[in-house]
Automatic annotation (TrEMBL):
UniProt KW Oxidoreductase keyword: yes
Name of the protein in its database record: Acyl-CoA dehydrogenase family protein
MF terms (GO), sorted A to Z: oxidoreductase activity
Record's keyword terms, sorted: FAD, Flavoprotein, Oxidoreductase
Disordered as annotated region, ranges: 145-190
Organism from which the protein derives: Streptacidiphilus alkalitolerans
Amino acid sequence: MDPALTPEQDAVRRTLREALAKNCGPEQVRAAAAGPEGYDRALWQQLSEQLGLPGLALPAEYGGAGLGPVELALACEETGRALLPSPLLASSVLAATLIDLLGTDEQRAALLPGLASGERTAALVLAASPAFALGLIPVDRGDGLPDGTAAGGGRAGGIQARPAPEQPDASRTPAAPAAPQAPPAGPGADWLLYGEAEQALDGARADLLVVAAHTGGFPRSRTVLFLVQGDAPEARRSRLAAMDHTRALGRVELRDAPAVPLGDPARDAGPALARTGLLAAVAIAAEAVGAADQCLARTVEYVQVRKQFERAVGSFQAVKHRLADVYVAVETARSAVHYAAWALEQGEDEGTAVPLALAHALDALRTAAAEAIQLHGGIAITWEHDAHLYFKRAASDELLFGPPHLLRTLAAERAALFSRPRVRSGQVSRKG
């Protein structure tokens, strides 16, 4: 791995940083997150048209830039630095990657160009926690089901899929989304989805829903991904109150919602969800590194001007040591994320580098945010201070995509560090 950035990679980082510095300050972030859509649509269109941000890591044949995880990580580091509220993670990383991995040629051609241009957005709807469903933390259900089954909710609960009953009337409206949103599914390919999911990232505002649902019953239990139009009357959506307002979470209730399978419905979605989880983990880790770096920069700036005992607070040795520890945490996390992105791009990651990088980045952000609040003193106690935006992001990301100790547990299991690992109910134990 060559740690030096190419001119193209440096241009991605520099251009995006300049654009966000002008248009995405703390007050603008608050206003955009509190809006009805949860993000600034005008800014999203600007980033789409001028920088091609939504299609950065999507294939060039479908309107994307054709770049890889490294460039995506560099871009996400800048969006994380500004805490940009946007559909980038939900639409461009999670949903679009799954469409590219599992979709038919017709589905990719119909859906990906709109997502790559930013004209449309999509959201991944999971019945389970994103960390479990995307394979980022270990889970042992004790039922022998394959990885990814938890994404649809399992054999009971969650979201269940069943073939739609045959309708002899040839004039009926097909359940599949109409072109150009998605290609027709064809006769007999219609499905109905019933159930609900919490904590769907951007689930309340996306134009298209990529829904993980359980099908096959007990004999052939598996998770299949389906496409559901966001404006379908059978899909009831509402935005949830969240700790981190910059990541909009939604509740999705499906009541026999018409759907079309994403790709072959006989194919289990577990491997594609796991692959998507690795790419999402790199993006989330890069955002955490950018946010932690910004916390550190603002804190260093503040302790140089705040005075106590007629001296700048930053001149005290104890403060220097604390900030030095944060600096080391941020830089080592950045190195871990860059290596994980490179390993994923080269196909050399066996599922250990990415979860370790995410764990280290989440730890770095939590440390940087906590130190920022402490060293800003009394003015940082209130929720309205900018430091709390980063503190909330750190806490929210650990709940959605962590926690770090389970990310490290997964990496340890995949590296076979323990002879007989056992993971149940989110706890780790070892016998023998």
